[in-house]
Amino acid sequence: MSINDLPVLSALRTKMQWHQERQRVLSENVSNSDTPKFRPRDLVEPKLDRSGAVTGSMGPLALTRTSGSHMAPSGAASGFDQNKNAGFETRPAGNAVNLEEEMMKAASNQMDYAAATSLYSKSLHLLKTAIGKG
């Protein structure tokens, strides 16, 4: 077993990769703040199990109702309110990027990335100390 196969290190690497990709998506949102009809995007945070593997990221596809005359799927919620961006302001050109909100997300993402990086380096240092090389 390699030192890189440890679940905690694998989970931290996955988390750091997610933060890097999220930073890219948030940067695209900011750079398209003047693009007409642009909708901001964000990533869903991965859920990790005890082994550090990603779980639940690709759940089963939900049934959608494309016409009001279709039957609702069993067990579905009473409404189809999938618009999670309801709080966004939309300009007359159709752009829904809120720069203050995007900057807050980017700052939060950067702090979480720094925390994951710090945990990763401290975990490696602890392992090196445990085997007598640190």
UniProtKB/TrEMBL annotation:
Domain of life: Bacteria
Subcellular location per the Swiss-Prot or TrEMBL entry: Bacterial flagellum basal body
Residue ranges with Basic and acidic residues bias: 36-50
Keyword field: Bacterial flagellum, Cell projection, Cilium, Flagellum
Polar residues bias: start-end ranges: 26-35
Region Disordered: start-end pairs: 24-91
Family per record: Belongs to the flagella basal body rod proteins family.
Subunit structure: The basal body constitutes a major portion of the flagellar organelle and consists of a number of rings mounted on a central rod.
Job description of the protein: Structural component of flagellum, the bacterial motility apparatus. Part of the rod structure of flagellar basal body.
Protein name per its UniProtKB record: Flagellar basal body rod protein FlgB
Organism in which the protein naturally occurs: Bradyrhizobium canariense
Gene: flgB
